[in-house]
Each structure stands twice: as structure tokens, then as C-alpha cells.
TrEMBL record:
Pfam families: ADH_N (PF08240), ADH_zinc_N (PF00107). This is Alcohol dehydrogenase catalytic domain-containing protein. Transmembrane segments: none annotated. It comes from Planosporangium thailandense. Its cofactor is Zn(2+). InterPro entries: ADH-like_C, ADH-like_N, GroES-like_sf, NAD(P)-bd_dom_sf, Zn_alcohol_dh. PANTHER family: L-THREONINE 3-DEHYDROGENASE.
């Protein structure tokens, strides 16, 4: 079968290769892959900026149909359309695992970097990580379950309270999903703030009913016009940029909440420490996705309280390089590979 493989360490080294078809082992399933979403992590792996164990098939945002089950797995799963938590290899016995934070286990080896992932015709995964997706959910929405679960897990750390004014910094897939989820969770107003290079994404967001701003000044005006509390209640940053943290601090009310969901790529960034202290800002960092975050994400999709399929642009697996370029160039919101 064909797969998009990170073949060697270093920058680049990605190719569409013939790879062995997987067979289900005890406790595992094999999926016929329907679609795999390209994440920023995949770009970081190509750029040699994220841990990985080559040769490895890329892709951890996976939608598929169960084709084969191993020993100990319920055969009723065969034929089911599923998504999967990317926490393969978590030990199950460390402090983090036993607290329900398997996503942070040091032994975790997720599909797409630690074990073969979903940019292939088939993928093998642990059965206990699967979530069945309701038939009513289109494929282009279901494939977004993993990034939506990241958002929902973040909102466990910094909840959206009914009536909140929420600002999301970053108009990429994670930011737009964060905005849609905040609306579904009962926010009174949600604003997406993007930069000049995100015009296509901001235009699409506005077309689908989201309020958008293209500068810190626009964002400040939007907040001032709507808040009687002195600022936004919650700012979600999906960029990891120092400028975004500074803007978030300026937009937040006193005792406001800042949720950090995005990597910035720098080892350290400057933050407005005194201003954050004076506002008594609560800062929360959320990494990867919890099991309960997945339950929330799949419920939001199944109930159609979120219908995010408009974010997706599909590409054939053979066009993987074109798809990666489209993501890096911000020509699409979310590129998805379809074997």
C-alpha cells in the first residue's frame, strides 16, 4: 500500500512510498483510512522541529472504517466509522496515566511520529482509543475530531462560561474550531483575530458567521463595544507568539483568563509580566487532548452543534506535497488527505 513517510532524520526526507500493509494484533484494529488531516505538527516533523522515529508514516488526525480486529477486540466494530485518540504507547500505570492524563505520558508514541500514522491506505491502532462517529456527521467534519478534542480539552482548563466574551487569536483550524466551540458552549460573543496573511481564512470565518478582526486595534474596539466588565473574559491564543500574549493581556478584563493552545516555535518569548500581574490574569496551558475532551468533541459533532466541514479542502494522497504547500502558504484552512 502507499503511505507518506518521513524516511530519515533532518529537514525534508518525506516521500510517498510503498509500505507494508498492517495486520491487527491483540487489542488492536486496522482501519481503512477515509481521511487524514494535516496538522502543524506534521509540518514541524518535516522541518525536523518535533520528535519522531523514522521511517514513520505521518498523520495523527485520522478518520477511518474498521476493517480488521485483533484478538480480544469486539468484532461488532468491523465496518464502523471511527476516529482515534492519538495516545498509543501510553503506559497506563504512571502518575499521569492514572490521573487520566495519558496524553502527557512520557512513554506515549502517537501515530504519525512514534508509530505509523494515517497518511496511508490503512493504519493499525489500539482499539481502546477509538470513538465511533454518528452516521449523520459528514466525513469532512468527522476528520476534525482530533483538533476539536484539543480545543475541548483546553476548555476543561479554562472553561467558557455562559455569557462570556471570548477572543480567539489565530485564524487557523485550531483557532476557528475554538471559536465555534466557544459559541456552542454559550459565549455571548466570540471574535477571531488574524493577521494579514490570514485574509482567506478570516474571509471564510466571516462568511460562516464569525466576527473577525484584522488588527489589535480592531479587536480592542470590538471588545470595548461589547464589554461592561472592562475587557474580554477569556482569550484563547493558538499562535504562541509574544505579540499575541501582549494583545491578549491588553484585551482581558481584570481576573480574565488566558488559554494557551498554540506552539510558537521559540524556546522563550517575552510576556508583559507586570500587566498580567496587575490584572490578576489566570493563565492555563493545555497540551494534546484528554479522553473527556474527545467525548465532548464527538458529542458536539454528532449533535451538529458544530458543523465545521467548511474548514476542509481535500487532496488525494498522491498530492500530499501540494497539500503541505497549501497549508504552509495559508492557501487553505485545513488540508485533508484522502487515500
Amino acid at each position: 500500500m502507499k503511505g507518506v513517510v518521513k524516511t530519515i532524520r533532518g529537514v525534508g526526507g518525506v516521500a510517498l512510498r510503498d509500505v507494508p500493509a498492517p495486520a491487527a494484533r491483540a487489542g488492536e484494529v486496522v482501519l481503512d483510512v477515509i481521511a487524514g488531516g494535516i496538522c502543524g505538527t506534521d509540518l514541524h516533523i518535516v522541518a525536523d522541529e518535533f520528535p519522531y522515529w523514522p521511517p514513520v508514516v505521518l498523520g495523527h488526525e485520522i478518520l477511518g472504517r474498521v476493517a480488521e480486529v485483533g484478538a480480544g477486540v469486539d468484532e461488532a466494530l468491523i465496518g464502523k466509522r471511527v476516529v482515534a485518540e492519538p495516545h498509543a504507547g501510553a503506559c497506563g500505570v504512571c502518575y499521569l496515566c492514572r490521573r487520566g492524563w495519558a496524553q502527557l505520558c512520557a512513554d506515549k508514541r502517537s501515530p504519525g511520529w512514534g508509530i505509523d500514522g494515517g497518511f496511508a491506505e490503512r493504519v493499525r491502532l489500539p482499539a481502546h482509543l477509538l470513538h465511533v462517529i454518528a452516521d449523520a456527521v459528514p466525513d469532512d467534519a468527522a476528520v476534525l475530531a482530533e483538533p476539536l478534542a484539543v480545543v475541548c480539552s483546553g476548555y476543561e482548563q479554562a472553561p467558557v462560561e455562559p455569557g462570556d466574551l471570548v477572543v480567539v487569536v489565530g485564524a487557523g483550524p485550531l483557532g476557528l474550531l475554538a471559536a465555534l466551540a466557544a459559541t456552542a458552549y454559550g459565549a455571548a460573543g466570540v471574535l477571531v483575530v488574524g493577521r494579514h496573511s490570514s485574509q482567506l481564512r478570516l474571509a471564510a470565518a466571516a462568511e460562516h458567521g464569525l466576527a473577525v478582526a484584522r488588527s489589535p486595534d480592531e479587536a480592542a474596539s470590538w471588545v470595548a463595544a461589547r464589554s461592561d466588565r472592562g475587557g474580554a473574559d477569556l482569550v484563547v491564543d493558538t499562535t504562541g507568539a509574544a505579540s499575541a500574549v501582549a494583545m491578549a493581556t491588553a484585551l482581558l478584563r481584570r481576573r480574565g483568563r488566558l488559554l494557551a493552545l498554540g506552539f510558537g516555535g521559540a524556546e522563550t518569548i517575552a510576556v508583559p509580566w507586570d500587566a498580567m500581574l496587575q490584572r490578576a490574569v489566570t493563565v492555563s496551558f493545555a497540551m494534546s487532548s484528554s479522553h473527556t475532551g474527545w467525548l465532548a468533541a464527538t458529542e458536539l459533532l454528532s449533535s451538529r452543534r458544530i458543523a465545521p466541514e467548511w474548514l476542509v479542502t481535500p487532496f488525494d494522497l498522491a498530492a500530499w506535497s501540494e497539500a503541505f504547500d497549501a497549508v504552509e502558504g495559508r492557501h487553505v484552512i485545513k488540508a485533508v488527505l484522502r487515500p
